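Thread: "does anyone have the structure for this chain?"

Original post by V.I.:
We have the sequence but no experimental structure in hand. Need at least a predicted one for the grant figures.
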Amino acid sequence: MRATVAAIAAEQDADGSLPWFRGGQLDPWDSVEAAMALDVGGAHDRARAAYRWLAARQRLDGSWASEYRAGAETAPAAESNHAGYLAVGLWHSWLCTADEALVSELWTVVRRGLDLVTRMQLPGGAVAWALRPDGTPDDTALLTGNASLFQALRCGVALAGLTGEPQPDWELAVTDLGAALRERSDAFADRSRYSMDWYYPVLAGAVTGGAARDRLAGDWARFVVPGLGVRCVADQPWVTGAETCELALALAAAGQTDAGLEQLAAMQHLRHDDGSYWTGFVYPDDARWPVERTTWTAAAVVLAADALAGTGPASGLFTDPSALPAAGTSQESAGWLPGGAGTVTP
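Reply from O.Q.:
Generated one for you, tokens below.
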């Protein structure tokens, strides 16, 4: 774990940005994930720097560009998933550090991002994947991104409880979104070839209990390659480290920790000597592909290991969906806050 966190930190630029690898592209979602791993490993100053880099680049409408290189926007599309995920990172950081100053500093940034997410919600509860050039939401919703937004909105509600600024619009949005994820499969584009659409509703806490275990069992044979990990795409002989670790998180959330440990162990063939991880492996060719070691793959390993061990202060974020406030309920009581965390005043 220490070596892997150090490998992530080694790719961070002096200005705090956390790209896929030094000199490579940066997208907000993956950068947040990498920052979360830094917090797990105790590199809190580096995680804060990554979050502040993102905060400084938020656009007025609450969005970020979908890609940056060397600090400049290289793909300007405004995606809902990127707008929402800082809420997960900041709540995770709070669990790791109880840093009230950082919550106060970034609360407005999180609020703008999640306000944009709610404005992008479509009839039926799903959230559009992106804004059109004219600023209106696209008609297409992606299941994986929406599952991630379900978690992001719940983390946002938790942060609202900390700051004493309830956000009833978010509570309504996440209630409708959860219903769509559980009951309205036709609300989302058909990307069932991709393993993320299989496990992400469980990972994000939208599908729980027996329904979660049934969902994971249903497509197990399509995606899991014994001893190697999880296919990114069902019809391709390519296993990827991040998807395998995310499945491990979903299994832990479904109460199947032993199976999660098995998957975390299975993907260790992707580990490099310095603790970083190759992105994927094409097993018929015995070839790593793409030939890159990404910070977000390493971060997924760190988050999965922390969650499965259950020892870090934020380890329950992915494994215990009930640890977040229930969607659509009043936050007048702070009794759900871990350790009587109290209230942060912005």
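V.I.: this helps a lot. Strands lie at 67-69, 72-75, 224-225, 229-231, 238-240, 280-282, 287-288.
O.Q.: and Residues 328-346 have pLDDT under 50 and may be disordered.
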